[in-house]
Amino acid sequence: ALTGGTSVRWTGEPIDQRVPRFTPVAPAVEVARPRAYWIPAGWALPDLLDRLTAHGIEFTRLTAPQAAQVERLRFAAPSFEPAPFEGRIRVRADASVEPATVTYPAGSVRVATDQPHGTLAIALLEPDAPDSFFQWGFFHAIFSRTEYAEAYVLEPLAERMLASDPALAEAWQAALADDPALADDPRARLAWFYERSPYVDQAHRLYPIGREMPAASTAAEASGDAAVQ
C-alpha cells in the first residue's frame, strides 16, 4: 500500500522448490600463467603491498637493482565507469604487449606465482581480471599525461623530422590523406609528430607492473592457463 509495488514477507514456513544447478562455472578470463609480476619501486606502495599481505600473498623486495625480461602492457583508450562504486571509479581498457628488458631499482617487488596463493596474485595483478587492482582504480595516474611540448617547440621539430626521415614524410602524407580530422586540426597535426618524437611520454598508459613469463622451453610445464573469474 505504501509503495504501490510488491514486498517480501518472511513467514518462516518451509516450501519445496526445484532450482537449477549450474556446473561447472565458466571462467570470465583466461591468461597464460606468468612466473612472476614485477612492481617498480615507485609503485610498491603500502596501498598495494598491504593488500597483498592481507591476502597471504608472498613477495620479495629488491635490495639492489636487478634486470628482468618482462612483458609490459600499454592500454588503449580506457573506459571509466560513470559513477563510483564502493568509493572507487572502476576502469577497463584493451592492451597491447610490449616485451622489454627492465632494470628494476632497489625497493622494487617481485611477486612469484609459484606459491600457495599464486593464482590469487594473478587475479589481483592481471589487468583483465574483473577484481584486479587495475580495474578497481589503483593505477588511474597512468592515464594522465605528465609530459608535453609547446607548439613553438613542436613546429620546428616536426620540420626537422620530415627533412631527415623520408619514411616518416611518406607516412605523414598518407595520414593526412586518410584522416580528414587530422588534416583539419592543427593541434592534432603537432600531436602526430610529438607521438613519434624521442620526447613522447613513454609511461603514458603503460601498466607499471611487468609480467615475467616462462621461457618457451618450459611454457608447457607451466600448466598453460590460469583461469580468473
Give the topology string: H per helix, E per strand: EEHEEEEEEHHHHHEE
* Overall number of strands: 10
Report the mean per-residue pLDDT as an integer: 90
Helix proportion of residues, in percent? 10-25%
Biggest pleated-sheet summary: 4 strands, antiparallel
Describe the structure.
This protein has 229 residues and is an alpha+beta fold. It is built from six helices and ten strands. It has helices spanning 46-54, 118-125, 151-164, 166-178, 180-183, 186-194, and strands spanning 29-32, 36-39, 60-61, 66-75, 79-80, 91-92, 95-104, 109-112, 210-212, 225-228. α3 (151-164) packs across α4 (166-178). The two termini are 42 Å apart.
Features:
alpha+beta; 10 strands; 229 residues; 6 helices; two-stranded antiparallel ribbon; four-stranded antiparallel beta sheet
Strand-helix topology:
Elements: E1 29-32, E2 36-39, H1 46-54, E3 60-61, E4 66-75, E5 79-80, E6 91-92, E7 95-104, E8 109-112, H2 118-125, H3 151-164, H4 166-178, H5 180-183, H6 186-194, E9 210-212, E10 225-228
Antiparallel strand pairs: 1-10, 2-8, 2-9, 3-8, 4-7, 5-6
Helix pairs in contact: 3-4, 3-6
Q: How is this structure best summarized?
A:
With 229 residues, this protein is an alpha+beta fold. The protein contains 6 helices and 10 strands, in the order ββαββββββαααααββ.
